[in-house]
């Protein structure tokens, strides 16, 4: 879509934030498991305002895709450059339920 609009004065920026901290999870009764439940440092979900600011900055820079967060960028890169079996194993490990000790 971004290429289709090139030269028309219309820009397109896709924001790919990954999980975002909103009230949606609580209202939908979603429980996070695995690493996602331990939201510290790099694993902490961004709030919607931060995601929007990063997307807006990316749009102003002319980016067609903005992936927010270190882990989300790593995941996007991995999906393009690593063997599929490795990526699937990493996803399984990431979401595997762990004890909360």
Report on this model:
It contains 4 helices and 4 strands; from the N terminus they run ββαβαβαα. It is mainly alpha-helical and 101 residues long. The strands form 2 sheets. It has a two-stranded parallel sheet with strand order 1-4. The protein has one domain. It has helices at 24-27, 48-60, 70-81, 84-95, and strands at 14-16, 20-21, 46-47, 65-67. The protein is globular and about 50 Å long. The longest helix is centred in the middle third of the chain and has 13 residues, at 48-60.
Q: Encode the helix/strand succession as letters.
A: EEHEHEHH
Question: Helical stretch count?
Answer: 4
Name the helicity range.
40-55%
The poorly predicted ranges are: none
Straight-line N-to-C gap: 47 Å
Count of beta strands: 4
Inertia-based shape: globular
Mean pLDDT: 82
User: What is the radius of gyration computed over CA atoms, rounded to a whole number of angstroms?
Assistant: 16 Å
**Sheet with the most strands: spatial strand order:** 1-4
Number of folding domains? 1
**Helix/strand-derived class?**
mainly alpha
Strand content: 5-15%
Largest sheet: 2 strands, parallel
């Amino acid at each position: 879509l971004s290429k289709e609009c090139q030269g028309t004065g219309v820009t397109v920026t896709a924001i790919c934030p990954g999980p975002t901290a909103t009230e949606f999870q609580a209202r939908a009764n979603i429980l996070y498991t695995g690493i996602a439940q331990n939201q510290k440092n790099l694993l902490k979900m961004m709030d919607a305002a931060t995601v929007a600011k990063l997307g807006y900055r990316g749009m102003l820079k002319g980016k067609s895709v903005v992936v927010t967060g270190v882990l989300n960028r790593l995941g996007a890169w991995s999906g393009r450059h690593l063997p599929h079996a490795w990526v699937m194993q990493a996803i399984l490990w990431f979401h595997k339920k762990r004890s909360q000790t």
